[in-house]
Amino acid sequence: MKVTLFDLDHTLLPIDSDYAWGEFTQAIGWTDPVVFKQRNDAFYEHYKAGTLDVHDYVRFATEAIRLKGPEAAAQARERFMREVVGPAIRPEALQLVRSHQDAGDRVLIVTATNEFVTEPIARALGVDELIAVRLARDEAGWITGEIDGVPSMRAGKVDRVGQWLAAQGLDWGQVETTFYSDSMNDLPLLERCDHPVATNPDAVLRSLAAQRGWRILDLFPSHP
């Protein structure tokens, strides 16, 4: 079986959906425009540097939706999809996903962004299987701000894909894997897969990919 894995932010999307959701909550008045932006920017810099505490970040990133409740959160997410994500979905990304699906691959998105933000994005990209940061729920079924299980970030992506394979009755040796990613945060999974593809890579990953002879794909060449 061929399994094709895609990172999401800056790989299939030319934006970071997690960061963009934070900016959106500012725009609709859910978060303090000064304090929230400072913290959101700081967390994003930690992510790029590979030093992010994902548990602290998820508590921060989900606080507004947790406090607003399911109905208001769902309505805001629909608006976010219409106004922010929809216009960012590029035909190049859709075509790449379809090419693997048409070839008969099992296609998954594997992202460090939480499931609340990414579930509708995966659907919009035509991908049925998503590995994202799972959010813990309270007795009423609403999110608590904590992470459920292993976060799909850095080496956690390898663990979560391994769990998915096991759930299919498979292991790494029974599948041929391809992984598209832009980020050095994803180096553990890039190294674990048979065909790593540095996609819209940052400078560090681009250099490493060139040294190792990995394929480099600039999916959005016109994007600044």
The percent of residues in helical segments reads 40-55%
Please state roughly what percent of the residues sit in beta strands, choosing from under 5%, 5-15%, 15-25%, 25-35%, 35-45% or over 45%.
15-25%
Give the neighbour order of strands across the main sheet.
3-2-1-6-7-8
CATH level 1 class label: Alpha Beta
Cα gyration radius (Å): 17 Å
CATH superfamily placement: HAD superfamily/HAD-like
Major sheet description: 6 strands, parallel
Stretches with pLDDT under 50, minimum 5 residues: none
Shape: globular
How many β-strand runs? 8
Mean pLDDT: 95
Q: What structural class should be given to the helix and strand makeup?
A: alpha/beta
**H/E series, N to C?**
EHHHHHEHEEEHEHEHE
- CATH fold assignment: Rossmann fold
For the termini, the CA-CA separation is: 36 Å
Integer tally of domains: 1
Helices, by number, come to: 9
CATH architecture: 3-Layer(aba) Sandwich
